[in-house]
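Appendix B, record 7
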Amino acid sequence: MAQCELAYMTWKEVEAARDRGAAVLVPIGTHEQNGTLGPMGTDGLLVFEITKRIAAETGAVVAPLLSYGYSSRHRNFPGTISLQPDTLRRLIYDICEALVKDGFDHVLLVNSHQTNEPIMEHAGRQIREKYGVIMGYINPVVLAEKSTQDLYPKLGSAHGHGDERVTSMLSYCLPGAVRMDAPPEPQEWREFEGLPLAASHQVKVGQGVFGLYIEVHDFSPSGGNGNPAAVDVDKGAEVVRRVVGMAVEYVKAFLKLRTSKRP
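Structure tokens (predicted):
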């Protein structure tokens, strides 16, 4: 099988990939706490593994992993490294600009950390404004949440930071990455000072959901959400299969789009 990672390709191989119209997938992670079982690099490690699987089925090439993101909500947990939003935007822009200048017209960001997404969009729209190239993105964790309610009926489509869905996926992709020596009790992000949580930055009041600029340590001593100890590698394999399948379908559709106005 042809090499798909840019870091291992020669410039001639990159040139050939460009000339055949390959998409470029740019994986973006974070370096933040993921509860007491998940490693700090969970987002990036998982995204990179998913991205390589997508590339294997679409002929795409994979840029090196950008291992840091915007993680200010997790800053009170040791080891969390968060970039300033403009630093992250500039990094994403510079990476994508280099690819676009090389002649790649189909560039997709692959990211599972939702607070990175507004920053990614800013960079992508700057690329469009300057070079006329439309970019897109894939969020594997959102795909997992929406497609596995039969496997995780108690979780439904709700997001859990380092929960059993994420730890199962990571354990399948990278055996040994999840720390299973001392599984903790299940934990839930329930409330902040009596207000039910809708997300790590949202609370419920009456029938409404409202924003609140709190941080994870304000309501969760461990940082985790859900039951990360309920790791099931077989379930993780099925989740990854579904996510990759949906992403492959999108990449193939994306490749048919006229994403560039360049001559």
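Remarks on this record: The beta strands are 24-28, 61-62, 107-111, 136-138, 191-192, 195-199, 202-205, 208-211. Helices lie at 11-19, 42-58, 85-101, 117-131, 140-147, 164-173, 233-255.
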